[in-house]
């Protein structure tokens, strides 16, 4: 696992340089989710693919920017699914973005996840790696330094509601509003990585991306976004659900499948489950 951890650190340093220096323009290609790919997305995907190609323990990779899985080393045992630059449309307004990595053993799938990691590219570059503990690292003078272990409180005070409100189910709106009525504050940038990072570091709250009339299975991808964050939140003492079951119990069909998702502290996720149970 150390070889993978170190490879991710190398990708983060190179992606930081790419973000700082690369011209931003739209490429003509669309990715598998139908979004126009930024040149920077493609560049970051290539950086990660190249760094992982040097790691013998990696058997197969799957990227948000690639249609299909890509085999790497036959003798390796790890399967890594990654989103090279999540929230990349925020780059042109200079908001934070991130890379997300789900590390699976022997095959892709929530039950095979053994570690997860994300890197936030904000005013500072930070990396959170969850294996047996969720640990925060900061890039300083060209190297990642361990900062602290991250633990969520039982209850937070931030509310990050995703999705198009017009298409929310009425009970979902009531759920979101119920937290605001309790004094929770709105924190939503439209970047999954910085939004979930903020909740983790400020002690907790709720990040929701529900199924909606236009997207019944939500927007966020299981292998690259949902499972890694579910794993990270659970190791940090929080919870993750699709409204009914623990996200880490879900299966997946294909590498780009999506799921409704809720991440938070125990208190908020208990409320989500209660409201969703009544509205099955
Ligand atoms: O996956 C892409 C993404 O940009 C996430 O980083 C983010 O949480 C979400 O989409 C935002 O979607 P919306 O604009 O629909 O709230």
UniProtKB/TrEMBL annotation:
Q: Quick one: which residues bind Mg(2+) 1?
A: 64, 83, 85
Q: According to the lineage, what is the superkingdom?
A: Bacteria
Enumerate the UniProt keywords alphabetically: Carbohydrate metabolism, Cytoplasm, Hydrolase, Magnesium, Metal-binding
The Fructose-1-6-bisphosphatase class 1 C-terminal domain sits at: 153-276
Q: In which pathway does it act?
A: Carbohydrate biosynthesis
Task: Establish whether keyword Protease is in the entry.
Answer: no
- Cite the Gene3D superfamilies for this sequence: 3.40.190.80, Fructose-1,6-Bisphosphatase, subunit A, domain 1
Mention any Pfam family matching this sequence: FBPase_C
GO MF annotations, alphabetized = fructose 1,6-bisphosphate 1-phosphatase activity; magnesium ion binding
**EC annotation from Swiss-Prot or TrEMBL:** 3.1.3.11
Residue ranges of every copy of the Fructose-1-6-bisphosphatase class I N-terminal domain listed in the record: 2-134
What GO cellular component entries does it have? Answer: cytosol
The residues that hold substrate are: 86-89, 188, 219
Q: How does it assemble?
A: Homotetramer.
UniProt name for this protein: Fructose-1,6-bisphosphatase class 1
Species the sequence originates in: Candidatus Sulfurimonas marisnigri
């Amino acid at each position: 696992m150390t070889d993978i951890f170190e490879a991710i650190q190398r990708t983060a340093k190179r992606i930081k340089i790419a973000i700082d220096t690369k011209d931003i323009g739209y490429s003509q290609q669309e990715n598998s989710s139908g979004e126009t790919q930024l040149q920077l997305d493609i560049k970051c995907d290539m950086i990660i693919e190249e760094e992982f190609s040097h790691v013998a323990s990696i058997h197969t990779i799957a990227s948000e920017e690639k249609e299909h899985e890509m085999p790497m080393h036959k003798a390796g045992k790890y399967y890594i699914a990654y989103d090279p630059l999540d929230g990349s449309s925020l780059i042109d307004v200079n908001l934070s973005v991130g890379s997300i990595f789900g590390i699976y053993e022997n095959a892709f799938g929530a039950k095979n996840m053994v570690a997860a990691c994300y890197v936030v590219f904000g005013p500072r570059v930070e990396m959170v790696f969850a294996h047996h503990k969720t640990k925060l690292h900061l890039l300083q003078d060209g190297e990642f330094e361990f900062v602290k272990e991250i633990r969520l409180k039982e209850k937070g005070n931030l509310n990050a509601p995703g999705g198009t409100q017009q298409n929310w189910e009425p009970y979902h709106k009531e759920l979101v509003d119920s937290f605001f009525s309790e004094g929770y504050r709105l924190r939503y940038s439209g970047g999954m990585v910085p939004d979930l990072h903020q909740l983790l570091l400020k002690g907790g709250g709720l990040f929701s991306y529900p199924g909606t009339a236009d997207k019944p299975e939500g927007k966020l991808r299981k292998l690259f976004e949902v499972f890694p964050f579910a794993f990270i939140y659970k190791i940090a003492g929080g919870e993750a659900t699709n409204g009914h079951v623990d996200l880490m119990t879900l299966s997946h069909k294909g590498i780009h499948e999506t799921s409704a998702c809720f991440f938070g502290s125990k208190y908020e996720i208990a409320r989500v489950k209660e409201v969703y149970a009544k509205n099955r």
